[in-house]
Each structure stands twice: as C-alpha cells, then as structure tokens.
C-alpha cells in the first residue's frame, strides 16, 4: 500500500494497512510561512494516513483511540523547513484540551509546542527534537506544529482520541505559530512571528529530556504498547 504515494516506499509503511492518504497541498501553507511562498496549487507537501490500524486490530476503534501516520518529505520553502500547518485541540473539560502522543518512525522531527494566553497571544514555546524510535508527548493545552528539519523523509505516527476535531484558527489568525524554523547552514535558527505581541524565548529539548506518561525506554513502539495494554492510554481521552 505504500505505493499509494508516489516516491514514498519506506519499509516503515509496509507494516500497516494504509488507507488512501489525505494530502496536504502547498497552498495550505500560504500565509503561514515567514516569507511568502508560491501558490503551489495541487503540489503535495505531506500525507496523512488516518486510522492506520493493521488488519484485525479492532481494539483501537473499541477504545476510541486512533493511530495516524504522517509522511513529510524534506523540503525548504523560502528558507523555511517544511512543516505541518499546525493546530490546537479542543477542550475535553474546563481546564484541559485533548493530549496526543507522537513517535518518530523514520527521519528526524522537530516539534513546536505552543501554549497561548486567553486572548490568543503566545505564553510559552517549546521545541522538541526527536529521532527515529523516540516518543514525544503533547500535553494538554499546547498547539503543535511538526517540522522536518532534515534531508530525509520524516514519518511520524500519532495516537489521539478519535472523535474530536482539531482547531486551526488560532494559528491561521496569527499567520503561523510563534516561531518559524529557518534553515541556516546545516542547522536551523528560530525566527519569532511578529504577529504575536509577547516575545517568549523558546525552550529547547531533546525527546529524551521531555517528560511523558509512557517511559521512554520501554523497548517497544507505541503501536505495540497500545495493543499490549490499551487502558494505559486512557489519559488521551
Ligand atoms: Fe494534534
């Protein structure tokens, strides 16, 4: 099924029974980058395979947790590393939005997590670098953008509650998250988005330093950990 996407033939994808991907086109990033990018209508930039369970793995649906895969080929657009358009999750109670769990299946990821003030300015920004096999928890109340800061196709999975709908408006209204990740030499630099009044200094972590409810060194991936004990992931609901 990996051949469903031209040019993407990772063995990582062969493990799953993938549906046809939802494709994000370049036009969706327009207005969300540091410098204007070409319209890019119909030019794919990343692919989302929702609910990528293996055959027979019905427990995911029964427990109301989804396993999605996102494939982000490397690219630099007007100096900025390719990224997802970014979103927040809705509230599940008075205090908390739904959380999420990421894992890198291939390549290197840079996750931008952003907490906003009640008037939708920025309050906190965290960058978390993660490599293949590393898990990264997205706590409640953080919007998030996934960046591919490398030259290899990034493949990540996420575990998330099935029924809610993500909110893209807060990031759209500010024309991006609070920082842009710009290629500089072989690395990157972070440029603040001037549409936010608050200038917060980003905190930078490696995945191994970033806390989450699942211990980092389990020796198992999130898919198998879920099947082993689905109730362990009740915190996502
Ligand atoms: Fe999310």
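-> sequence recovered:
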């Amino acid at each position: 099924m990996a051949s469903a996407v031209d040019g993407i033939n990772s063995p990582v994808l062969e493990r799953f029974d993938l549906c046809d991907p939802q494709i994000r086109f370049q036009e969706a990033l327009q207005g969300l980058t540091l410098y204007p990018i070409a319209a890019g209508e119909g030019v794919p930039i990343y692919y989302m395979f929702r609910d990528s369970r293996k055959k027979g793995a019905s427990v995911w649906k029964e427990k109301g947790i989804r396993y999605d895969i996102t494939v982000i080929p490397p690219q630099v657009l007007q100096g900025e590393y390719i990224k997802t358009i970014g979103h927040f999750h809705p509230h599940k109670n008075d205090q908390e939005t739904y959380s999420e769990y990421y894992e890198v299946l291939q390549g290197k990821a840079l996750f931008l997590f952003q907490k906003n003030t009640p008037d939708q300015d920025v309050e906190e920004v965290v960058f978390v670098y993660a490599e293949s096999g590393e898990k990264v928890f997205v706590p409640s109340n953080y919007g998030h953008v996934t960046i591919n800061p490398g030259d290899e196709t990034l493949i990540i999975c996420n575990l998330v509650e099935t029924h809610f709908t993500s909110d893209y408006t807060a990031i759209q209204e500010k024309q991006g998250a609070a920082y842009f990740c710009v290629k500089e030499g072989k690395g990157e630099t972070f440029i603040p988005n001037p549409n936010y009044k608050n200038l917060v200094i980003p905190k930078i972590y490696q995945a191994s330093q970033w806390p989450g409810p699942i211990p980092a060194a389990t020796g198992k991936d999130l898919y198998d950990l879920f099947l082993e004990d689905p109730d362990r992931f009740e915190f996502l609901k």
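Residues 128 and 205 are 5 Å apart (CA to CA).
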